[in-house]
Amino acid sequence: MPQHEPAALPDHVRRIVDEIEAGEEDALPPPPEDRAGSRIESAVRQILVEIGEDPEREGLLDTPARMHRMYAELTAGYHVDVERLINRAIFEVGYSEMVVVKDIEFHSLCEHHLLPFFGRAHVAYVPNGRVIGLSKIPRIVEMYARRLQVQERMTQQIAELLMDRLQPRGVGVVLEATHLCAAMRGVRKPGTVMTTAAVLGLFRRNDKTRAEFFAHIGRRPPEG
Fold it and tell me: Could you give the domains of the chain?
């Protein structure tokens, strides 16, 4: 999806994008009204009417504006500039053992029902002469989480970005998440956790490397 110029973003979305890209956490003023916001708010009002609610009652009066702001924040990852996120934080280092960053909390929106799924990401790579700054891996996870997602694709996107930018010997990514679309509707099975994995390079070819990764994160490697 094409990325937007920074000036095109509402201030509150720009702030979130800045936090993901560069850790800029200064508060910014509320966003101005915009045409897209008006369309979203009109759609939310129509949804309220369709489910039998009164969008004019006190408790719902500001709900369309709140939902406009919420969805803009939760999908801010579409606007993140990967180059600005990485920001020259790839370094030449003579280190060749596995690097593991685990228990990265994330929250995302399932694209099928726009309901949250959330959990933890575990990311590892085996360097090939280059490493990436520690804070960048959680930011990469956050960038992909703040989009409409399916967990399988998000897992693969994280792995492929690291493989492309670092050119390591291999990358492994595991995501574990609870999906409210399974807990609140459909099968209604609260407590169910979905696990997805993407293994590239050495992690795919070498059973020992893959087993080491899963041992680091306290999980059993998949069979086969």
Answer: 6-79 (1.10.286.10), 90-216 (3.30.1130.10)
Q: Catalytic one among 4, 12, 113, 216? A: 113
Catalytic-residue membership of 19: no
**Is 122 designated active site?**
no
**pTM (2 decimals)?**
0.85
Q: What is the pLDDT of residues 177-203, one digit of tens each?
A: 999 988 887 777 777 899 999 999 999
Q: Which residues contact residue 27 at a Cβ distance below 8 angstroms, ignoring those fewer than 6 apart?
A: 15
Q: Can 112 be counted among the known catalytic residues?
A: yes
Burial class of residue 22 in the structure, from the number of CB atoms within 10 Å of its CB (0-12 exposed, 13-18 middle, 19+ buried): middle
Confirm whether 111 is a catalytic residue.
yes
Express each pLDDT in 5-32 by its tens digit.
544 788 878 888 888 887 654 333 444 5
